[in-house]
Amino acid sequence: MKIISKRAAGKTLSGDSFSFAQQAKAAKRAGFDVLDATLGTFYYDDGSFRGFEAVKEIFRSLPDEDYFSYAPIAGGIPFASAVLDWVFRASRTAIEKEMAARVVPTPGGTGAISSAVFLTLDHGKSVLIPDLAWGPYDGIAANFGVRTERFKFFAGNVFNFEDFRLKGEAVAQRDGKLAVIINDPCHNPTGYTLSPGELSRIIAYLNEKKDTPCVLIYDIAYLDYSNEGREAARRKLEILTKAEPHVLIAVAFSASKSFCAYGQRLGALIMMNKNEDVVEELFRSLAFHARHSWNNANRAMISMMTAIAADEGLRRRLDDEIDIVVGELRERSAIFLAEAKSAGLAVYPYHGGFFLTVPARDNEKTLRDLREKEHFYFLPFRESLRVAICAIPKNKLKGVAATVKKYCPD
Q1: Closest CA to 72 of 220, 281, 283, 291
Q2: pLDDT band for position 290 (50/70/90)?
Q3: pTM here?
Q4: For residue 363, how many C-alpha atoms fall within 13 Å in the half-sphere facing its CB?
């Protein structure tokens, strides 16, 4: 006799990034000199973790009601406008001219992605993701009885459009719907960023499938950390407005990541479509889902976002602090990539962001050797390992690529 439900049976959290991070912390407590490159958490070059000063200043200034009380289920009009301002900036007018857009707050970017999968895919259907993809995409899908299908992310050093199309055709024919998750810019785990041409080609392909409902879940968790610059990253979002009415765009924004406030869980799902009725129906469904899942999002973070939208000076200060992080990531990646080239260590194409990824056919052995012999902690991905350069100060990064090469066969 089983008490647990069928949909919950057999599910267990194992091999998660946080479990690897706990292993690294345990090794530190045991006195080992540990290189912990597991989590997507930025540490400064002095080894410290610090929140942004502009964010802390806003938090300190909030009255108790704006910090501790319930937030509106759907966030409220000022919050929705603040999200659209932050995510689209100078492109907002052009985007809203072409597309209807509604916003609902979620618990982090993860909540936005999870909500998009729940709202658009029925039990037994599939979502198409890259072979190299953030691990929780699989778990999010499994939680709702949705399958994940994979396409090869790279063809050489560029996006593998042909395999994307091939796998997309198979999913569309079987399911009568095509839903895709793309993480861009600064793809997790590789740091790859789609070119405007590559994103345009994806949208054009979805547009071709006029008899098939399509969904693009566009995960922009690292939007603010792209080497292409914040304005160029936003201009690229205008390409999404080319989507035809049968294509829903679900943009998953992470305020927790953008504002270096990882534990203060806030994200937003931005639903976009040419047809306003489609967006309104999704908005009502998402508000219902929110009320009966997590209920309210983080009030203090919602208040912070509306405060930034109302104060250009605060926004510029926050931009400056983000730019410092982007600059550090650029310097760290340059060190790792230069040393990898010298050592003959292969690295997947990297354009910016928190992570680099190294191909490793026997990644379990490679990671085990690095842990046991060097006290290096990385994350396993499909036949690869992810290096969180966001967590490694420059003085500890030197020599890492050459050491990884010792344990990473060709």
Answers
A1: 291
A2: very high
A3: 0.95
A4: 15
